[in-house]
Here is the input.
Amino acid sequence: MSIQMYLVGGVLFAIYICFTIWNIVHNNKAQESRKNSKSSGKDSLEKGGMGSKSSK
Here is the structure.
């Protein structure tokens, strides 16, 4: 009986690890696509983080 419990626990743990890794990869790709879509709409001056500065 104890071997079956270890097998069931191992299978559940493997499924949990697979879904955790899939979640990390999926969210990383989604974040990269959001980051790329936000940065594509800015001017080349604003990409450096300084923004449009007017000189006096």
In short: The radius of gyration is 23 Å. Residues 2-39 form the longest helix (38 residues).
